[in-house]
Amino acid sequence: MAEDKNEQREGRERAGGAGGRGEGDRPTTGEDPEARGDQRLGVYICHCGVNIARTVDVEKVAEAASRLPGVAIAKTYQYMCSDPGQSLIKSDIEKHGLTGVVVAACSPRMHEPTFRAAVGEAGMNAYLFEMANIREQCSWIHEDREEATDKATDLVRAAVARASRLDRLTEREVEVTPEALVIGGGIAGIQAALDIAEAGYRVHLVERTPSIGGHMAQLDKTFPTLDCSACILTPKMVDVARHANIDLLAYSEVEEITGYIGNFHVKVRRKATSVDRHLCTSCGDCIEKCPSRVPSEFNEGMAERRAIYTPFPQSVPSEPVIDRDHCLYFQNDGKCGVCAKICTVGAIDYTMEDEIAEFDVGTVVVATGYDEFQPKLKPELGYEAYDNVITGLEMERLCSASGPTEGEFAIGGKEPKDVVFIQCVGSRDETVGNPYCSRVCCMYTAKQAHLVREKLPKANITIFYMDIRAFGKGFEEFYDRVRKENVIYRRGSVSEIYKKGERLVVRGEDTLVGEPMEVEADLVVLATGITPRRETEELVKQLKLSRSADGFLLEAHPKLRPVDTPVDGVFLAGCCQGPKDIPDAVAQAKGAASSAIAPMAKGTVMAEALTASIDEDLCSGCRICVSVCPYGALAYDEEDDVSKVNEALCKGCGVCAAACPSGAITMSHFTSEQMLAQVVALIGGSDG
Amino acid sequence: MAVSLKETYELLGCIQCGRCTAGCPVGFRTYLNVRKVVYEGLTETGPRDAKGRPEAWNCTTCSNCTDRCPKGVKPMELLIGLRSAAIEKGKAMPTVRDALESTFKHGNPWGRGRDKRMEWAEDLDVPVADEGEEAPLLYFYGCTPAYETRAQDVAKSLVRVFAAAGVPYKTLGTAESDCGNEIWRLGEQGLFELLVEGNTELFRSHGVETIVTSSPHCMNTFKNEYGDLGIEALHYSQFLKELLDEGKLELPTPVEKTVTYHDPCFLGKHNEIYDEPRDVLNAVPGVTFVEFDRSRERALCCEGGGGRMWVEAVEERGERIAEIRVNDAVALGADYLVTACPFCLLTLEDAVKTSGNEGKIEVVDLSELVAMAL
Q1: Which of A161, A215, A616, B8 could form a disulfide bond with A681, CB atoms 3.0-4.6 angstroms apart?
Q2: What is the SS3 string spanning A289-349?
Q3: Where are the alpha helices (DSSP H) in B44-175?
Q4: What domains appear along chain A, each with residue ranges and CATH number?
């Protein structure tokens, strides 16, 4: 062991090593005959202000570390991540000829890249750096200073044991396919696709339904500006249709995504539309003559569409599709065929089959949106029992000039006299597993109340609320305006709706009066909240994403990486990540687009240096590794009767190494030797 | 010093939205405001027992407040806690005190002797398990069907139905004691624990495997509050449904009546048993079934639960809910208002009289309806 006996001990620096100790007090652990010789490690214990130092005696930890085998130097510093902290490491590498660096500080999720870059700048291989997490895994979760100090000492000892066995690794540079995939054609997906396309890259925009537009297309007006939603959305939809860089795949679903940042391979199922889009002129004659009636999804079931249909007049693409589940031709063995007879250009093709489109992309934007809360989960509100209890989206369609009543505001043919809105239906409600606020209902209810007031100047409008959250730009002002339009806000939650003759009775408590109360209504609008898409779980599996506790897709960091996911090259936009209003969804979409553009603009990304390798002498060819690899990076070679790793595909997750029954697979940077040394040092005792 | 109400009942989660008060069946009937009680608890500004907040005795323990609270607060438990505190201090109202004392002494809250417990069965051939005799299938007839004249019809009908289906059941005769469901809800947790202990020992000594109860209240406490009892507890509607499905029970005689069904809270809201009683009802030939507007999860409470049978309601106002229920049933054109709970039977039948609907409608227990069809 090298030592620095002559080194001046200055400040908080401690020099030392196992050799510096007397014969009698040989450490019981830590002194590991297998540790590589001539190691000169630098160990740095971070105070993190008081975040660590309040609970952990960092000096004591450094003192203990200085005596570990292979440690040339052990120091503490206020903020290791600061520029001076990084400079300290860099100058020590030079001055002491360090062979490895351990920083005991926060989670490697935060600053591992910082320190890897720092040691790299000093000429050391970045993979010779190791981090011990003594903040999240120690100081933040313990109170007893002595015990926390012991634990930090253990964690540092384990990190040192591993650090002294680390290998130099090199990252590979990989080319990035200059194309992107956007999943979901709502406003977030539309915006992301347009931005990427405008930057000059090809975009494949996949939309499940026959038209892009999403929920925004269903809305009547937007809050708080009262723009006509369709009027501001449809120009963007047309831009998508026209853009030379956008490959619009409507009525399509992503079947499979494999690969990694820069090189994703995508399979998309293009459902058979039964209409040849190259021949169709979108004249609409087929739709008019179709005899089959189906509840319209776009109109929330309040109107009917045909079996051959476009969801709404401004649909993009404009060509209709045949819904085979409701088409008489498909349901009655070819009897019907009216649309084919009426079509003058012969675009109807009943024999069309689903196609699989395959392509490569460099980056992916997920913009799959949300589902509206199902109010049947709150039976006391009578949604299923009464036709005049409706959801927020149904109210949008009812208000809309393109809606089922063409904007005429009527319930059962009559103008309502008393309209009651109920806030927080399915939001902030643990009984339905949705503890979160949906963020849009306060304002869309205010907007809908305003629309009712416009149409029905004499109606009584009451809004039951728990709290009003008017947090956005112009929101509070809009809330002020709506109240002054003689919309009565009553603070209290509703727990019963029942029928009295032809009218509804809404029972709540006015908590400000302190009395239960009943309000009669002809129309009750439930401010139904935003919930994760039912298909979220499939998406999570397809892309290896994660969900947060609320069920929405999880961002890489809630504050600083709100657009990224834990998977490199995959970004989030819109309500798939959590409830958002339109401007927030658009902003996030623009963020996701620019994140997706960055690697394409650079042209290359550094690929994972951590990969699996197979010792072909040990491999029995059992192929268990092939079956467990989530990235398709392993393949069986029949000729050699062994499995082989495709390093370009390997993400270094280590599943194969853990699964291999022969111990033939080695994960670089997480070799058995490195892991075992770390574990042994950790459980070996605390007197090292 | 006792722990504060806000700690015991975790009231700090409350956001004062008022949904508890809004859904409270007696909120319009009395001055009980559940939200206010919770607020006083969490700000420690209110009385700590039901003596100071007598409306707490009005709670029917229907569980709407607890079931619907968006923040997981349990106001019903708080109200029961206020009753407990009053009882502990000897401040329970006299009728409640008498019911508790009777339960302690005689095993029933009706103030009647244990020796009279099987009077309902006098002319009937009801099998009684001797001490120590095996009774794998136990019919737990319950206190109210034992002593209350009108409710006795439930037990009488059920044993006829059991006999017709050849059910190998036993009763515990006069050894049976109160189940404790209402005792716990009146706030006498000590007595409840005694009953649990005694009943558990009694059931085990007879090797009981399945209990069929007359009342949803007894079923509820056996099923949910007896800890590790290891005995299946069924309400008779569930049991009759099984008998019908297995073809063991035949109902050949048509009952040409229009009937509606009132969901008892302890069958429906507390235990989500909505379908079985309706299935049994619809298995009766000749019956035309009409559903209440407010049914299943949205059903009204009859005000008979939570020990209310032994409570003098405090400062009532407005129409009784049972009367609303009867009026609604009459408006539906029902000949029979069917329910499946002795307490509902009593409150609804009383409401027929007080609402002036005598002769227009009859309140019938589901067990009676089935017996008519034998």
Answers
A1: A161
A2: HCCCEEECCCCCCCCEEECEECCCCCCCCCCCEECCCCCHHHHCCCCCCHHHHHCCCCCEC
A3: 64-68, 75-88, 94-106, 143-147, 149-164
A4: 14-169 (3.40.50), 185-264+360-369+535-602 (3.50.50.60), 272-353 (no CATH), 372-532 (3.50.50.60), 612-668 (3.30.70.20)
B/e letters for A27-61, b = 16+ CB within 10 Å, e = fewer, are: bebbebeebeeebbbbbbbbbbeebbbebbbbebb
DSSP A29: S
What is the secondary structure of A473-531 as a DSSP string? TTHHHHHHHHHHTTEEEEE--EEEEEEETTEEEEEEEETTTTEEEEEEESEEEEEE-EE
User: Tens digits of per-residue pLDDT, A182-225?
Assistant: 999 999 999 999 999 999 999 999 999 999 999 999 999 999 99
A509 vs B68: CB contact, 8 Å cut-off?
A: no
The answer to whether the Cβ–Cβ distance between B35 and A509 falls below 8 Å is yes
Sole residue written with tokens 């253990």: A154
Token digits for B127? 């099998």
Residue A632: the pLDDT is 81
Q: What is the pLDDT of residues A289-318, one digit of tens each?
A: 999 999 999 999 999 999 999 999 999 999
pLDDT confidence bin for A154, thresholds 50/70/90: very high
Nearest to A380 among B21, B23, B35 (CB): B23
pLDDT value, residue B2: 58
Name the 3-class secondary structure at B180. Answer: coil
Token pair of A551 as six digits: 């069920």
CB pairs under 8 A between A and B: 80
Contact B35 A515 (CB under 8 A): no
* Residue A243 pLDDT level (bands cut at 50, 70, 90): very high
The band of A685, judged by pLDDT with boundaries at 50, 70 and 90, is low
pLDDT at A8 over 50: no
Q: Chain A: nearest CA to B225, how far in angstroms?
A: 22
Q: Distance from B340 to chain A by nearest Cα, in Å?
A: 22
What domains sit in chain B, N to C, each tagged with a CATH number? 5-88 (no CATH), 94-243 (no CATH), 251-372 (3.40.50.10700)
C-beta atoms of B23 and A515 within 8 A: no
The position carrying tokens 């980056």 is A363
A494 vs B22: CB contact, 8 Å cut-off? yes
Q: Which chain A residues have a beta carbon less than 8 Å from that of B21?
A: 492, 509, 511, 516
What interface predicted TM-score (ipTM) does this complex get? 0.93
A491 contacts on B by Cβ (under 8 Å)? 18
- Contact flag A515-B20 (C-beta cutoff 8 Å): no
Q: Are strands A612-614 and A665-667 parallel, antiparallel or unpaired?
A: antiparallel
Q: Which residues pair with A614 in a beta bridge?
A: A665
The Cα of B27 is separated from the nearest Cα of chain A by a number of Å equal to 7
**Which residues of A are less than 8 Å from B22 in CB distance?**
492-496, 507-509, 516
Interface of A with B in 481-510 (CB under 8 A): 491-496, 498-499, 507-510
User: Nearest-5° angle of CA B96, CA B102, CA B105?
Assistant: 145
How large is the angle between the packed helices B149-164 and B342-354, nearest 10 degrees? 130
Using the Cβ of B22 and the Cβ atoms of chain A, whether some distance falls under 8 Å is answered with yes
Read off the DSSP letter of residue B129.
P
Instruction: For chain B, say whether A366 makes contact (Cβ under 8 Å).
Output: no
What is the token pair recorded at B98?
A: 């008498």
Residues A402 and A312 sit within 8 Å (Cβ to Cβ): yes
Asked whether A425 and B70 are in contact (CB, 8 A), the reply is no
User: What Å distances lie between residue B315 and B27, B79, B305, CA to CA?
Assistant: 12, 17, 18
From CA A323, how far away is CA A250, in angstroms rounded?
A: 14
Contacts of A495 in chain B (CB under 8 A): 19-20, 22-23, 64, 68
